[in-house]
Amino acid sequence: KGTRKRRAHAPPVGNELERLRRVSIEGNIAVGKSTFAKLLHSVNKDWDVVPEPVGKWQNVGTSEKTASNLLDMMYRDPQRWSYTFQTFSCMSRMHTQLQPPATHLLGSGGTPVQVFERSVYSDRYIFALTLFELGSINATEWAVYQSWHSFLLEQFGQRLELEGIIYLKAPPQICLERLKRRDRDEEKGVKLDYLEKLHDQHENWLVNKSTELHFEQLKQVPVLVLDTSGNFEEDEKVKNNLISQVREFFS
Ligand code: TTP
């Protein structure tokens, strides 16, 4: 709140592009980011969800015959594939974050909001950092990652900036239960201690503010912390409570 400014790089195609807001939803694996993003869209059509490109990571390659599942490769052999995975996930994320807003968003007369599931920032400060701390990315790979990440983000500058972050927070044990329930093949080996590590990483970045951030602008982005340990998919009361917090945060 209070840091909103006109986007200097917004193309001169009418007021709505100028008013466009860009928000990212962050949170542990399986906490429910996609479900929450859809919920936002269902209560306000001006909120447009730009989904996370998980499918792209499960299907890397130019033809069906040669396509490989990079997500699976990373979980099976983290030391060999984590750096490659983070390179690819960050690139696909950058592509997503640079997309122009969907045309239906423009012309509604409202205040369009692009909602991203995760961001180029969580790619670095949640996943790549954790994989480095766990030894799955080595010191050289980490240095190379940070070098191109900083360079690209500086080049694209304001076009990648966020106006707000919604942090969905739930105990790692609950995320593990949700992860088991959805039963994604590649994630069968994910253990509680990995989710605990990712949880701490979210807390350090978004709550304790103790992560060392390279980007000045990122330090100023307002964060809304939502307790999503309750069943917000089915329980109307829980759902409405979360929605009203979002409304108030962006009002
Ligand atoms: P998430 O980005 O957490 O997506 P999700 O489908 O779990 O989200 P939700 O259930 O909350 O809607 O991660 C998808 C998978 O990709 C997960 O197994 C973790 C992995 N991953 C990485 O290893 N590195 C990354 O940088 C990202 C973004 C994901």
| Ligand kinds | thymidine-5'-triphosphate
**How many helical elements?**
11
Low-confidence stretches: 1-13
Structural class: alpha/beta
Query: What is the radius of gyration?
Result: 18 Å
Question: What CATH architecture do you see?
Answer: 3-Layer(aba) Sandwich
Domain count = 1
Q: Please, could you describe this protein's structure?
A:
The protein is 50% helix and 11% strand. By secondary structure, the chain is of the alpha/beta class. The protein has one domain: 3-Layer(aba) Sandwich (Rossmann fold), CATH 3.40.50.300. Strands 2-3-1-4-5 form a five-stranded parallel β-sheet, with helices on both faces. Helix 4 (70-76) packs antiparallel against helix 5 and helix 8 packs across helix 9. The longest helix is centred in the middle third of the chain and has 20 residues, at 78-97. Residues 1-13 have low confidence and may be disordered. The chain binds thymidine-5'-triphosphate (TTP). Residues 27, 29-34, 52, 54, 71, 86, 89, 118, 123, 127, 187 line the site of thymidine-5'-triphosphate.
Throw out a few tags for this protein.
globular; 251 residues; Rossmann fold; binds thymidine-5'-triphosphate; disordered N terminus; five-stranded parallel β-sheet
Brief digest:
With 251 residues, the chain is an alpha/beta fold. Helix content is 50%, strand content 11%. The longest helix is centred in the middle third of the chain and has 20 residues, at 78-97.
Describe the SSE topology.
Elements lengths: L14 H5 L1 E7 L5 H11 L3 E4 L3 H4 L12 H7 L1 H20 L15 E5 L2 H14 L5 H18 L7 E6 L2 H11 L9 H16 L8 H5 L2 E5 L8 H14 L2
Parallel strand pairs: 1-3, 1-4, 2-3, 4-5
Helix pairs in contact: 4-5, 5-6, 5-7, 6-7, 6-9, 8-9
The structure holds thymidine-5'-triphosphate.
